[in-house]
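Review form for a predicted model. The reviewer records the input and the model, then writes brief findings.
Reviewer: anonymous (R2)
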Amino acid sequence: MKIVSWNVNSVRARIENIQNYIKDSKPDILFLQEIKTEEINFPKDNFDNLGYQSYVFGQKSYNGVAFVSKVKISSINIKFINDKLKQSRIITGDLEFKNKKIKLINIYVPNGNPITTEKYDYKKDWLNIFTLAVKKELKKNSNIIISGDFNIIPEEIDVYDSKRYENDALFKLEIRKKYRELINLGFNDVFRHINKTKQEYTFWDYFAGSWAKNYGMRIDHFLVTNNMLESIKSIKINTKPRSKVKPSDHTPIELDII
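Model under review:
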């Protein structure tokens, strides 16, 4: 089964690219972030025509997450955490796969910049609340996949110039420690687990020729519980969509489970 995570930076602006990607890559489930639309304006018909059902937690103009899936996702929940600012950043659901119930958690973590503002405090609080909610979930289910745009660069290898980002909300040590706290609950960053030394990115800014120069960072991740590692067939960062006309500034990450 192919599960894909992609911050599309507006689902309606990117719909043609997303449809082409689906036709080419044939994912079973898409975790979408930053859909930037309310559910009423989400292009469900476009996905229906391709054989996919949409499960949406939207918001006008900002944020928003969704599952787009060929297989049934049950127990959809848009209240996994109590978001203090009531932003649409998490959607969860259950997947039945090979006699296992897998909890799917699709997240769009706050960016947190500038670090001297309340945006940074919101990010820290959000991550603390999220980690507590995951810890609680683990008591009920040991099969969990968390994916999405974490807005966290885990290590120096995950960005083209780590010195430049030392005081950025994506790379500050305090934030990286919170990522580690989440992993220490019993998760693995799948890409880094499989690729110990590979330097690949999931995001390139639109400015200053970042894509052409490969000035990128790895901020989109798949975390799986330790007991699910044996189910992982492969993980790939697919950079082709980033090279298209009118692309998202993120590119899909593709997880194959067996």
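Findings: The longest strand covers residues 100-108.
Further findings: Helices lie at 15-25, 44-48, 118-138, 173-183, 190-194, 210-213.
Recommendation: see findings above.
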